[in-house]
Every structure is written in C-alpha cells, then in structure tokens.
Design brief:
Length: 822
C-alpha cells in the first residue's frame, strides 16, 4: 500500500474489501437499519485510524508508505460481514485521504479504488476459490496471497495513481515506481492484517491450558527480544527470526503464525522507519522493497506451514476417527469377524468370534492356526479357500468349526480373498455366523416329523389290531365260560388270553407313543400321584435301590389323565432301575416353575413360555451317550439285550406327555446318571377327587341297549356279552341305521354304546343326535384310537364315559352296570 504526501497534501489512499456471496442491495439481510449504520460507521472509523497508523510508515520516504493496514481491514470486514458494509470502506478511505490534504476529487477517486479493491478480492476468494475463513488449508493461504493480495491490489494502485495524477498531486517519483509502491503496500497490508483478523475471529476456538499460557509467554518474549536484537545490528541476520515464527505456526496454527508475523513486521517497519536495521542502509526505494520482501516471505512462510500442519493434523484425526470407527464396528459387531493370512494364521478377530468359538477374548484367537485349531476337519480349509479364490466377490459357505472345548459347531462363512498389486492373495477375510441353533432346530424339526410319521403308523396299526384283539378276547371268554370244556383246551385258551393281554398292553403303548389314545383328563396334583405310586415301586424294586421323594409344598395342579401319568412314572422308574444294576438312588422331585423364554427341546421346536409343574426323575445310573440321547424317545429303540425290552417305554412316556400338552427332556452323561424332566402346564382348577368305581352286584340286569359298531366281529361280541347278561340288545353298523332305530322305537333305549370312529358319521355326532331325540340317554364311547378332528387332542370332558378296546367281558359288563345305575 502506498501513501503520498506533497507539499500541502499527503496522499494516503487505500482500502480493501472482501465479500461473502451477498447481493449488495439485499436489504432483507441487513438487519435493523440502526445496527447496519453503526457497523458501517465503526468500519469507517477503524479504517481512518488504521490509515493514520499507515502514514507513519512513510518515513522511509516522504511519499511512500511501507504497508497499508486499511487494505487488510477492508478485506477482512467484507469476508466476515458481507459486501453490504462496503460503504464503510468508501467513507473511511475518503476521510483518511481528505484529512491528509488530498484534493477532494482525488480523495474520491482513491476511495473508489480502495473500495473496489476489497470488493474484487472478496468476490474472487468466495466465488472462485472456495475460501475458508479459518485459513486451515494451504489452498486458502495461496488464494489469499494470489487472489486477495496480488490480483486485487492493482485495482487500488491503478485508480489511486491515476486520480492523483489528474488532480495534480502525484509524488515526485516515476509513475511505475509509485504504482509498484502503492501495489506492494496494499498487498502487504492484506497479507499481514487480513490473516490476523480472520484467524482470531473465524478460527477454531482452542482451550488454553496452563502449559500453553507459559509457552505463549515465552514465545512472545523470544519473538520480541530476538527481533529487537536483530534489527539493532548492521548485519543481515534478520531472517534468523524465521525459526521462532515457524515455532508459533507449528504449535498454534494460523492464529500463531499471523500474530507472530504481525509482531515481527510491526517491529521491522518501526526500526526501518527510524533508520535502524538492514533495511535502512540503502536507497529509500530499495529499502522499501527489501523490507516488504522480508515481511511477505515471513507471513507467507508462516501461514503456509501452519496450514500444512493443520491439514496434516486434520488428516490424522480423520484417519484415527476412521480407524476408531472401524475398530468399533468390528468390536461391537454381533457376528464374528475373521482375517487370516494365506497360510491360515489368524490376523484379526473380534469378541463375537471369540464367543462363537468359546474363547475368553479375541486376543486368544490371534496367531492360531485355522487348520488345527478352528476347522473341525483340517481338509475343509482347502475346499473353502478354493471356493473363495475362484469367486471374485464375497461368497457364502457352510462349514464346521470346533469350539475351544473341542465340540463341533456349524457356521456360515461370508468370505473373500484380498489381493495385492501383483494379484497374489494378501489375506482372507470374512464374517462368521453361528448356525448351531438353526441346525439344532432343523434336527429337532426332522426328529418331530419322524416321530409324527411313526406315531401315525403306530396309531393306525393299533386301531385295527385292537378290533381284532377285542374279538379274540371276547370269544376266548365265551369258550372259557363253557363248563364242559376239556382241561387241556382250557389251558390253551388261558395262554391265548394272556397273549391277548400282552398284545393289549403293546397296542396301548403304541397309541400312547402316537398320541392317538383317548385321554380322560382330571385336575390332579403330582405329589398325590407319587405318594400313591411309591409303595408299589418299593415292592417292585430291589432293596439296593433307594427311592426318594422331594416334593414341593403347595404344588400347582395339572390337568392330565391319572392312569396315563402313572404309566409315565412307572416307565421312567423302570428305565432308571435298569440303569442301576448294582443299586443306587432314584429320586422323584416336583417344583413350580415359570418359563420366561423359549427353551429348545429335543424332538420339538421349543418350549413355550408359561407356568409349569416340573417333575424330575433322577437316577445315579450309568448315564447315556449323546448318540443314545438323540434316539431314546424313538419307538423300538432299546439299549437292552435282545428279548429284554420292546423299546416302547420311553416312547410311550414321550407320547403321553406330549398329548397332555407338556414337554419332556433329558440331562445325562456317561457315568453321571440321568435326569428326565417333565413339564406339564399349570391348571387353574383345584385337584379333583377320584370317585371309586362301581362294581356289578348280583341283582338281575335290565334295560335296552343300542350297540353301534362298524366292525362286525366286535359288534357280534358285544351283542352276545350283553344279551347273556340279560339286557335287550339292538345293533347297528353305522350312524344312519342307528338313527332309523331311534326313529322307529321312540324312547325305548336306556344306553347307547357307540364306536368313536365310523364311516359317514362318527360316534360323537351320533350321540349328539340321539340325545336330542331322547333326553337323558346315557352314552358309552368305545374305540381303539381316534383321529377324529372333532376330538380336540383326543380328550373327553370330565364325566363322559369311554372304554378302550380291547376289553374283557367283565370290564364291559361292569361299566354298563355302573352307567345304568348311576
């Protein structure tokens, strides 16, 4: 920047203006007019004061000023407040020149030049350079120097020198020298003052620590002291101050660089004006340009170093943030993350992978060998890598890993190979998903399907077989009732009856396994059933087996068929007895339990949450292997020697528990005994009292009975038994015939005996229609099994009579007498 003084006039014109992308006449952004006027006035006053200070630098030469601070103030004002405050620059530039003795016309021209200089600089920086006010980038520093100072200062220099020449107040210097002095003075003002203002106003706020305060104080003392010493000597050592300003730039960024440069420049100008230092030993023009060169190099070097350091710090922070984000993603991922080198050594793992593989932390995995420590079979890795090598992107593969304890797990590997610049595999990386639970569910589902299929088959066979057994048992009883029967034939028939009884027990087990027998549930307490069963178990078992009861007081009630529950308890007890050939302890324990989340159960998808009564049957026997555990509930599976077991005991228990709405699971290990856990849903009703059965007496029987049975042999056997007892018996082969008989005979029937499963019309529908025709009609249902969809889970309500096939003469006659007399 330059200022000129002629005899009656000193010429101090300058100014610089910066702009934020604003429209000059955009009044909507001016705020209140009083506030705007105040800002313009303050800018003008600041400009005038800075201009007065700039004139003191003219001592180097009567007509030339070394630096023009108002140019830097003007540009900073426009960059910070917008182009709307340009009138403050124009007014300040006019006042500082008119009061310095410049002719009014020349003062107006200089003010126009200073204002346009600031506006051009601001527009170039904001519109074309994407200028950042904090000067945190090297491109911002270079833009300020090249566009803000060098490209815009010629505007003010050209208009100012021309205005003075036209007004007759040009200095006694060549025009080129005057123009260059003006240009360099404005450029130095922008390079020094604009960064100082921007860095303190728009720069990032930094918390000053006690250590920073001490360092700043030391830096200022060294800076001022060293500069004073350097400018009081006649030797050109002034560039030795650069390390100190570099220190300020590196430690305190653009703010430190701009402040240090401004302090050194102010001292340098002051000493030079007074005739001290290396820039006061030659001609005034030479001294001026040497001084300005020193100041420019000092300011630009410091600002560029600060910006470069800031960019590097920003890049390092971004890199560290990216690394931290990557570490957080890997660390907190819910799936396993794995990275291995081509040889199979683990380079990286995350906590999720450590949990999947049973390790305490990922650091225990780093360095392990995939072949020997992770893969279930080492040969799997070669096939896995071959798959990943061929596929360009991420591929998916299911493989078996092993946990730290050696147990196998199934995982889903989403992996890929990462190659270096030469195309070689640098490492492998992938995501590991634990599939063990899914595989377990798949196995349970297949097991459930198999059990269901076998159950249906067993139920179908048992149904037909029970009809045959009913005929066999009845006919055997008829023949045995013949007093004239030879004894050798009687013995044979007794063997037939025993075989029939054994076959009956077998079919009932098949029905229980297939969950197709008809249940007669009651609300009962398991503690009571255990107490009733205990004496019988003690009679059956060896004295070397200690039977214990650990019952919970106030046990919840359950709803189940008492006879079937006793069969479950007996089957489990016998299974435990066989597992303790040398004696041991058999414990029955009960407790109330609340299941809050689904629990995987062998053979089922899972146990549903709810309230259950838990029955534990625990022994101290030989235990079972994992292979045996997977098969214990399958029909006809047994670990006993040939001829010692049917393999239906546990299968029967499983079927009864499932049909009762419960769950059964086993916990065992070789040599550690076994514990069967039975979960039965809680019932809200109170336990029912079991009424004693009514036996036949010697009174003569009487009454009319309708027998409806689609199996001819069973129908004839029932008719013969009941007729021999003294009842009037009519028969029908299906529901339609039975309804015709009802329509013909009116209210003559006392009892309806009907099979549950018949063609066209099932027993329940028939009974419902018959009861509608004759109120008070008594009904007994008979069946070998039922698949009737109307029989919800094959259960009857309490009080309904049901008789299972096959049955003996005494059983059917006793039940008929009980129903008719009840």
């Amino acid at each position: 920047m330059s200022a000129f003084a002629e005899t009656a006039a000193r010429t101090p014109p300058r100014g610089s203006t910066g702009s934020i992308p604003d429209t000059i006449l955009d009044l909507s952004r001016l705020g209140t007019w009083p506030g705007y006027v105040v800002r313009v006035a303050l800018l003008a006053a600041t400009y005038v004061l800075a201009g007065r200070l700039g004139f003191t630098a003219s001592a180097v030469h009567p007509v030339v000023s070394s630096a023009w601070p108002p140019s830097g103030i003007a540009l900073a004002a426009l960059l910070l407040m917008g182009t709307r405050v340009w009138p403050g620059i124009a007014l300040g530039a006019f006042l500082v020149n008119i009061t310095a003795g410049i002719a009014p016309l020349a003062a107006v021209g200089i003010a126009v030049g200073n204002t346009l200089e600031a506006l051009v600089a601001a527009r170039l920086l904001t519109s074309f350079a994407g200028f950042g006010l904090s000067l945190g980038r090297m491109r911002d520093v270079l833009a300020l120097v090249l566009l803000g100072a060098i490209a815009s200062a010629p505007v003010s220099a050209t208009i100012g020198v021309t205005a003075l020449a036209l007004a007759g107040g040009a200095p006694q210097l060549p025009v080129s020298t005057a123009w260059l002095a003006w240009f360099s003075g404005d450029a130095i003002g922008i390079a020094l003052v604009t960064p100082l203002i921007l860095s303190w106003v728009a720069g990032a706020k930094r918390r000053i620590t006690g250590r920073d305060a001490i360092e700043v104080s030391l830096l200022v003392v060294i800076l001022i002291g060293f500069t004073i010493v350097l400018f009081q000597t006649q030797f050109s050592y002034v560039y030795a101050i650069f390390p100190v300003t570099i220190w300020a730039a590196l430690r305190f960024g653009p703010r430190g660089a701009a402040t240090a440069s401004f302090i050194v420049a102010a001292l340098a100008i002051g000493y030079t004006v007074q005739g001290y230092g290396p820039f006061a030993s030659s001609t005034t023009v030479t001294n001026l340009f040497e001084l300005q060169t020193f100041i420019a190099l000092l300011a630009i070097t410091s600002l560029l170093l600060a910006a470069a350091t800031g960019e590097r710090h920003t890049a390092e922070m971004a890199l560290e943030r990216s690394r931290r984000q990557h570490r957080d993603i890997v660390h907190h991922a819910s799936v396993g993350v794995l990275q291995t080198n081509p040889e199979g050594k683990i380079l990286l793992a995350n906590p999720a992978l450590a949990r999947i593989l049973g390790y305490d932390g990922p650091e225990q995995l780093v360095g392990l060998d995939m072949i020997t420590d992770v893969y279930w079979e080492g040969t799997q890795r070669a096939a896995t890598l071959a798959r990943f090598e061929v596929v360009a992107n991420v591929d998916t593969l299911e493989v078996q890993f092993k946990r730290r304890d050696g147990s196998p797990i199934w995982v889903d590997v989403h992996g890929r190979s990462v190659r270096d610049d030469a195309g070689r595999t640098a490492y492998f990386e992938g995501f590991i998903y634990d599939l063990t639970s899914r595989k377990t569910l798949e196995l349970q589902f297949m097991q459930a399907q198999k059990m269901e299929a076998v159950g249906r088959l067993a139920g179908g066979v048992a149904h037909d077989f029970n009809n045959l057994l009913t005929v066999i048992a009845s006919c055997t009883e008829f023949v045995l009732g013949d007093k004239a029967l030879a004894e050798e034939h009687r013995a044979d028939l007794i063997d037939v009856r025993k075989a029939t009884d054994r076959a009956t027990s077998l079919t009932r087990q098949l029905l229980a396994f297939g969950r197709t027998q008809v249940l007669r549930p009651n609300t009962l307490c398991l503690n009571d059933r255990l107490a009733e069963l205990l004496p019988m178990l003690k009679r059956l078992f060896e004295t070397t087996i200690d039977i214990r009861l650990e019952t919970t007081p106030d046990l919840w009630a359950v709803r189940a068929d008492p006879g079937q529950i006793e069969q479950v308890l007996l089957n489990l007890a016998i299974n435990s007895r066989d597992a303790m050939p040398d004696g041991g302890t058999l414990t029955f324990a009960t407790e109330n339990i609340v299941v809050v989340e689904e629990i995987p159960i062998l053979g089922e998808h899972s146990m549903k949450p709810g309230e259950y009564v838990l029955l534990r049957v625990r022994d101290t026997g030989v235990g079972m292997s994992e292979e045996t555990q997977r098969m214990i509930f399958e029909p006809f599976f047994t670990t006993k020697e040939l001829g010692k077991g049917t393999g239906l005991g546990l299968a029967t228990a499983y079927g009864i528990v499932k049909q009762s709405g419960g769950y059964i699971k086993v916990r065992t290990a070789p040599g550690q005994g076994a514990e069967f856990q039975i979960y039965l849903p809680r019932s809200g009703a109170a336990p029912a009292r079991i009424a004693p059965s009514v036996r036949r007496d010697d009174r003569p029987a009487g009454g009319t009975i309708l027998v409806v049975e689609d199996e001819a042999g069973v129908r004839r056997a029932l008719q013969r038994m009941l007729f021999a007892e003294g009842y009037t018996v009519l028969t029908a082969a299906n529901g339609a015939e039975a309804l015709d008989l009802f329509a013909a005979r009116g209210n003559d029937f006392d009892l309806l005996i009907t099979d549950l499963v018949m063609p066209a019309m099932d027993g329940r529908d028939l009974a419902r229609k018959c009861c509608a025709l004759q109120r008070g009609l008594k009904v007994i249902y008979i069946s070998g099994y039922t698949r009737d969809s109307l029989l919800s889970q094959q259960t009857f309500e309490e009080g309904m009579e049901f008789l299972e096939k096959p049955f003996t003469n005494d059983v059917i006659l006793e039940r008929v007498a009980s129903v008719l007399r009840g």
